[in-house]
Amino acid sequence: xxxxxxxxxxxxxxxxxxxxxxxxxxxxxxxxxxxxxxxxxxxxxxxxxxxxxxxxxxxxxxxxxxxxxxxxxxxxxxxxxxxxxxxxxxxxxxxxxxxxxxxxxxxxxxxxxxxxxxxxxxxxxxxxxxxxxxxxxxxxxxxxxxxxxxxxxxxxxxxxxxxxxxxxxxxxxxxxxxxxxxxxxxxxxxxxxxxxxxxxxxxxxxxxxxxxxxxxxxxxxxxxxxxxxxxxxxxxxxxxxxxxxxxxxxxxxxxxxxxxxxxxxxxxxxxxxxxxxxxxxxxxxxxxxxxxxxxxxxxxxxxxxxxxxxxxxxxxxxxxxxxxxxxxxxxxxxxxxxxxxxxxxxxxxxxxxxxxxxxxxxxxxxxxxxxxxxxxxxxxxxxxxxxxxxxxxxxxxxxxxxxxxxxxxxxxxxxxxxxxxxxxxxxxxxxxxxxxxxxxxxxxxxxxxxxxxxxxxxxxxxxxxxxxxxxxxxxxxxxxxxxxxxxxxxxxxxxxxxxxxxxxxxxxxxxxxxxxxxxxxxxxxxxxxxxxxxxxxxxxxxxxxxxxxxxxxxxxxxxxxxxxxxxxxxxxxxxxxxxxxxxxxxxxxxxxxxxxxxxxxxxxxxxxxxxxxxxxxxxxxxxxxxxxxxxxxxxxxxxxxxxxxxxxxxxxxxxxxxxxxxxxxxxxxxxxxxxxxxxxxxxxxxxxxxxxxxxxxxxxxxxxxxxxxxxxxx
Length: 714
Description:
Layout: H1 8-32, H2 37-48, H3 53-56, H4 58-64, H5 70-91, H6 101-130, H7 137-147, H8 153-162, H9 169-197, H10 201-231, H11 241-261, H12 265-275, H13 282-309, H14 318-345, H15 350-360, H16 364-377, H17 382-397, H18 399-406, H19 409-415, E1 435-439, H20 446-456, E2 465-472, H21 485-493, H22 495-503, E3 508-514, H23 518-529, E4 533-537, H24 550-558, E5 562-567, E6 576-580, H25 585-597, E7 603-610, H26 615-631, E8 641-647, H27 651-659, E9 665-669, H28 687-691, E10 695-700, H29 704-713
Parallel strand pairs: 1-2, 1-4, 2-3, 4-5, 6-7, 6-9, 7-8, 9-10
Antiparallel strand pairs: 5-10
Helix pairs in contact: 1-2, 1-13, 2-13, 5-12, 5-13, 6-7, 6-9, 6-14, 7-9, 8-9, 9-10, 9-15, 9-16, 10-11, 11-12, 14-15, 14-17, 15-18, 16-17, 20-22, 23-24, 25-26
């Protein structure tokens, strides 16, 4: 292996490939448990360090990460941090404080003061045990205070989006608190670094004075210039390479200046991002250009570098682990407890205040940055660094499960602002209301879906309820700019459907939000809105051919309503409908939908396939089942229905052959009779989907009794 790593460049290439690959692999596992990517990257870094790889195979670690390569890896991680802190500054928008200043500022300041005080008290206990006389007592105490008060703004923003809390009161308060926390904590850290680097009080005072002069210069001189610069980049074409180059030059100059002053280069990067103009698209476009490179390539270097410095083996006795547990306890008590009490005193409910406390206790990447600064300055020892890294991991890891416990999905649904069109007054009707939830993945599938829905509610369109749901999968970006994604991509993606609905004189209520778990959210919305039918648009997947796989399979299994999977092949009108019928519960659900279509003058043909030699015996049984289905309540036109018997040993083949005789739509139960049962990996071909020449609606009946039994069991 040594021969393959013969030069510093070859070694770095191998290190980078290993770090990125392991981070992504661990990330796949982390996302399965609802954990943010930062958890995976930190764990990947620890796995590559002395805590695991060094313990299992010291020779391999010495070959892959020799001490001589650490300066290069450290330098790359610092470059990544500079760019990342610039992006964090870009995320801070003063508009967040509007209308929320009272509660947010009170909670944010409390969540800094209380953890800082507890951190200082903890420092009194830890200093004689985990520090050395060479470290000034004041520097150690101040660093412990600041490190306990950190909140991870980017990780917090991602969790709020994933949990759909960003638009709630809790999300609004928390994201504002985190923004204030970030600014305050980094100012405090700059002060602590200046004290730690100074040899006496006079030098520390000079450093603080220069830092204040730097901040004033950035606000008074640089900020107006950046505003004029941002006006030139109002579009993607406007953000030229020259403008990006100028911005990067300002970034490097600001970082160099703060490093020269003695308050660390990261503060300069953060400050420049914070004063960048937030109006227009300049910040968004700049983030799009930089973020993927930073998050995917450079930041994992920092995590690996931190992992290589994390030595869990140093905690080699019960006393060390007890101190580590004490650090975690104090960190949670200060951040969670302080935010909880402050939230309650500012008027939040107990549930809301608890959720704010849990969220503010998230530390993640920001804590690691602070810890690495402390280790580089020699303020904390490697053993204390390891304990604090574990604290950052634990406090970040516990956020999602605790938030799920305190703030379940049902509570979130009730607090989300309704994005609904005001319904028209209901006409007097004796028919029960029929509610359809149309789930639109692609804007092009919306018009045909609402045409289908219009036929199902043709008896009294204004009496029934139609909802159009658009779920946007969150991007991998850490940027807070994803907040505006709902309004831009959500309702906009429903426009073709809404325009078609207006042409058909239908009232449709649009709903759109970012969702990392589409199947779960579809089922939740269906339950909240009382849907009778969930319509899913189907698009051929890339890997497998199965219709009833992936998200569709999850919705079929969990949705509290009958589910229809719509395979659109150019549906324009619904005049002739074919319903293959073998008598299964799913077939009966398909027949019930066809029955509703007769009120729109659709001609329904019920195709019953009988095996050769059993024509007469099965015909009577099929006729009886069909009569029972049509005798149930609800409107229908008896003269529009006819039954057709076919003798064939393969029902699916017979249905496909009949579908080719001029039908607009085929409605079929999603069962094994028609080759549509869910198959392992979806490897078996589905004849009805592949060969049927017309549009299809695959129906799975909602089994209320089975759902009630499952609910009782849980």
